[in-house]
Amino acid sequence: MDVSRFYYVLAEKDQSFNSFMKFQRFMFDNYKLINTIKEESDREAFEHHFHKIPEYTFNIFSKLEYSLLNSIATADLAISNIGKRLQEYKEGEDER
């Protein structure tokens, strides 16, 4: 297994959902190769982060949930503002 690639995907995992999915795929694809890692500290780091995948998954989904709620709130505000402007326009048309 390429240890430098492990540390790269580990460092990138919080950058985006896509990066997290690459990290997760890398970890599961390489778990069977854990005994090929020469340095014990690297092996322990891989094992540690492999077992933290459920926690990392929870964290990324929490971020996605917040982002999604924020997007919904922004869209709702935009729709409300459009509705107000349309109502003002309609009221202006009625006065003519």
Q: Kindly provide the radius of gyration, computed on alpha-carbon positions and rounded to a whole number of angstroms.
A: 24 Å
In one word, what is the shape? rod-shaped
How much β-strand is present in the residues?
Answer: under 5%
The number of distinct β-strands equals 0
* Residue runs with pLDDT of under 50 for 5 or more positions: none
Q: Main beta sheet: strand number and arrangement?
A: none
* End-to-end separation: 76 Å
- Along the chain, the helix and strand elements come as HHHH
Count of DSSP helices?
4
Portion of residues in helices?
Answer: over 70%
Structural category is mainly alpha
- Average pLDDT value? 88
Please explain how this structure is put together.
There is one protein chain. Helix 1 (3-12) packs antiparallel against helix 2 (17-30). With 96 residues, the chain is mainly alpha-helical. The protein is 82% helix and 0% strand.
Can you give keywords for this protein?
0% strand; single chain; 82% helix; mainly alpha
Structure described in brief:
The chain is an all-alpha fold.
Task: Walk me through the topology.
Blueprint: H1 3-12, H2 17-30, H3 40-51, H4 53-95
Helix pairs in contact: 1-2
